Amino acid sequence: MKQARYDAESLGHYGLSTDFYTHFTSPIRRYPDLIVHRLIRTYLINGQMDEQTQRKWAEKLPDIAEHASDMERRAVEAERETDDLKKTEFMEDKIGMEFDGIISSVTNFGLFVELPNTIEGLVHVSYLTDDYYRYDERHYAMIGERTGKVYRIGDEITVRVINVNKDERIVDFEIVGMKGRRPKEAKSAPVVIEGKKRKKTNKQNGKAKKSKKFYEDVPQLKAKKKKKKKR
Description:
Blueprint: H1 31-45, H2 51-91, E1 98-107, E2 110-114, E3 120-124, E4 133-136, E5 141-144, E6 150-152, E7 156-165, E8 170-175
Parallel strand pairs: 3-8
Antiparallel strand pairs: 1-2, 1-7, 2-3, 4-5, 5-6, 7-8
């Protein structure tokens, strides 16, 4: 579904199945609300909705609608960032504490668990240590290959806070009753294949070879004696 946006044209309302729709809040807290009030005042109170007035608003409204849409997206992002920051600050001193939560999302890298206070954290797949779990994309579930245990959206589980990163806005959980994180398999060091060693040059041996000047390599021509002609 596309993100909602403001538009100068009357696009109707899909959910209400109406051809014409506008909205405003009370008290006024958005610029589009103020524009709607201005249009109502212009039409109902001032009675100024002649062709010239309509043309003036028709020129302004597309830019106003685009600007309002951009600013609303920025406001939503700022609100989300602030919300995440305050949640991680709240959880900083809760490391080691246990909470009941509900699985809110399942991905191929773990389970997102939401607590009753709306704070959400991740149980990384590396902390699911009682079995090898594979991600079932169709059913949004983690399924244990050996035990058949299933974790899916809506399941209630008890988690423990193990890490809080305020800079990254991240809260990490582990499921209570499971062992610690599964260790990574040690990787063998790469084998270094040595090639043939290069012979050291005179310069590397500390015996720098004296270079000749360019004209010293030119072969010297012997001067021929001129024979005196007999008269």
